[in-house]
Design a protein that fits this description.
The chain has a six-stranded antiparallel beta barrel. It contains six helices and 17 strands. It is α+β, with helices and mostly antiparallel strands and 381 residues long. A hairpin with a 4-residue loop joins strand 9 and strand 10. Helix 2 packs antiparallel against helix 5. It folds into five domains: 33 residues; 131 residues, Elongation Factor Tu (Ef-tu), domain 3 (Beta Barrel); 66 residues, OB fold (Dihydrolipoamide Acetyltransferase, E2P) (Beta Barrel), CATH 2.40.50; 42 residues; 73 residues, Helix hairpin bin (Helix Hairpins).
């Protein structure tokens, strides 16, 4: 190719590149129309509203959701309920393997029964058969005394008539036999009196105390055995079960594989989050300590909740204030979070509108204001 022709080709390519660069710059520099948001951000419905983080929980007049921890440690043998299931007060929730404690309780019960039987035996004394035996022994001793006394009297009469008719040794033996018979009769008589008196009062008291001690030990063992079965403290619903059959639980709770920490074995709420008649749910809001002075009086408190990821907003009814400023760590439950900020919990309640599904433990956005500074305060939309 001739040099002039090659130069023309090069200049043509450079020109095309410049044109392409100008076109690309124009295309990419042109402002693009933004995509419409999936949902609108939560607007502040109050002129001077305070934003807070909130968490949904079951509604109750005091406290929070009930965290159930066992008082004993062991392997889970059976789980009687399922998550979301409604339970009555006292219903069994979870059973921990209790074979050792059950055997201990049965052993103590048997010991208490044996002690009671011995106490009744002492109280039933004298036994009729035993009394008959000692009475017969006393009669025998009396008969022996009469026999030896008669023999002695005869020897004494013979000795009085003729001293040579009875040897001194025979006479002394007869006298000794009478003394022995008298002593035997004395022993038999006292034994009869002792038998008739029955058991010694101190023996009965001692056995009574031993029986009472074993009864209390048996009751304590039974009470400890009952703790191997976790039961519902009130009528409500099972919100969460953090254990399974064969896993180990302790008073610290159940080990969570994902968070690598211990938490409650079962969480109970006052109402089920699903179903036609759900009733009220509560929202626990955490107001930053810096914003506490801006809170209106409790009688004027108003709030509105926004469900994240949706355009749904629900008005809230103020219930109570927890008068204790707690660490902000409660917002995230992060054990490693190091902050000095504290928050004041406020509790509101609401009734979920039809078609709106919310669950305890769900995080929501809440604005708190007062009735005098409401901009727009409508129901769910």
């Amino acid at each position: 190719m001739e040099p002039p022709v090659r130069n023309k080709v090069i200049f043509a390519l450079v020109g095309l590149g410049l044109v392409g660069a100008v076109v690309s710059a124009f295309v990419y520099a042109a402002p693009k129309k933004p995509q419409p948001p999936v949902f609108s951000p939560a607007p502040n419905p109050f002129a001077k509203g305070i934003y807070t983080n909130g968490i949904i929980e079951s509604y109750q007049s005091h406290g929070e959701n009930t965290n159930v921890y066992p008082e004993v440690a062991g392997v889970v043998a059976h789980i009687f309920v399922a998550e979301g299931e409604k339970v009555e007060e006292g219903a069994p929730l979870l059973q921990i393997e209790d074979s050792v404690q059950r055997a201990t309780a049965e052993q103590l019960e048997s010991q208490a029964e044996a002690s009671r039987a011995l106490l009744e035996e002492l109280r039933a004394q004298p036994r009729k058969e035993s009394l008959a035996v000692v009475q017969a022994q006393a009669e025998l001793a009396a008969a022996n005394l009469k026999t030896t006394q008669d023999q002695l009297d005869k020897l004494m009469q013979s000795y009085a008539l003729n001293p040579k008719s009875v040897s001194k040794d025979t006479l002394d033996n007869a006298k000794n036999a009478v003394r022995v018979a008298q002593a035997n009769l004395e022993v038999a008589t006292r034994q009869l009196q002792l038998t008739r008196a029955g058991a010694w009062v101190f023996d009965i008291r001692n056995q009574q105390k031993q029986y009472e001690s074993l009864v209390r030990a048996s009751a304590a063992s039974r009470a400890l055995l009952a703790k191997y079965t976790l039961r519902a403290a009130f009528k409500g619903a099972v919100l969460s079960i953090a254990s399974s059959v064969g896993s180990y639980v302790s008073p610290q709770g159940a080990y969570d594989t994902y968070t690598q920490g211990f938490g409650p074995v079962i969480v109970l709420g006052t109402a089920s989050p699903s179903g036609a008649s759900r009733g009220f749910l509560a929202v626990r809001c955490y107001v930053d300590e810096i914003l506490i002075p801006r809170l209106p009086p409790p009688a004027d408190l108003r709030a509105k909740m926004f469900i994240r990821g949706t355009n749904i907003s629900i008005p809230l009814e103020f219930v109570r204030m927890q008068p204790y400023v707690s660490p902000k760590i409660q917002l995230s439950n992060a054990r490693t979070e190091k902050v000095d900020v504290r928050v004041l919990p406020l509790i509101f309640r609401f009734e979920p509108p039809p078609g709106v599904d919310v669950y305890p433990g769900q995080l929501v956005d809440v604005y708190v204001g007062d009735k005098e500074t409401v901009n727009v305060f409508v129901g769910a939309k």
